[in-house]
Amino acid sequence: xxxxxxxxxxxxxxxxxxxxxxxxxxxGHMPDIIMLSPDTNSRVAGPAHTVLxxxxxxxPAEKLPAHHVDAAPPGSVxxxxxPPGVTTANWGGMMSTRARAMGLAGTxxxxxxxxxxEHRALGYPVFARGVSIHGSGGYTMTASxxxxxxxxxxxxxxxxxxxxxxxGVVAIPQERLGEVLAKTEELxxxxxxxxxxxxAGASIEATFAKYR
Length: 212
Known about the structure:
alpha/beta, single chain, 10 strands
């Protein structure tokens, strides 16, 4: 993944990118997954490292060669699919400690996280549906990593691009990143014109009619 393209993506909010993917008919917004750490000024982008969690008790088809965090490529965003209805956390402080040491970009959990103060102290970005005081031991287990998953109702593959900020999280198919960037930049230019006209005294109705 080109660092230059990720830098271009990081110039935009998830709201701006969401407008672009809507125009392109890409389903990428993960509703109700919000930033838990580190602060409102953070923005994270990177290729997804996908993880599938299942209820404890079953066994994976084969023994996994490494812990799913240890297997994540540097610069990636760990994206975890948690079983529906599970109230325990699938991400905690020790995982963030390891992830930060590895140079991972952040974590997105379609479920719960815990140890929020630890993530914030580390400055490590964590996005989740909610918080739990309980860990995953005895409740969930890793079934696979690196395979396609669903997270927040969105299909995510290993290497798809994740962008997260205070507004939420979006996933972009890796092969469509170029057109998403182009559309986002196009819409941002229009947005800038609208803002200037509103600041000059134009009405919302007239501005929207002109540009939308």
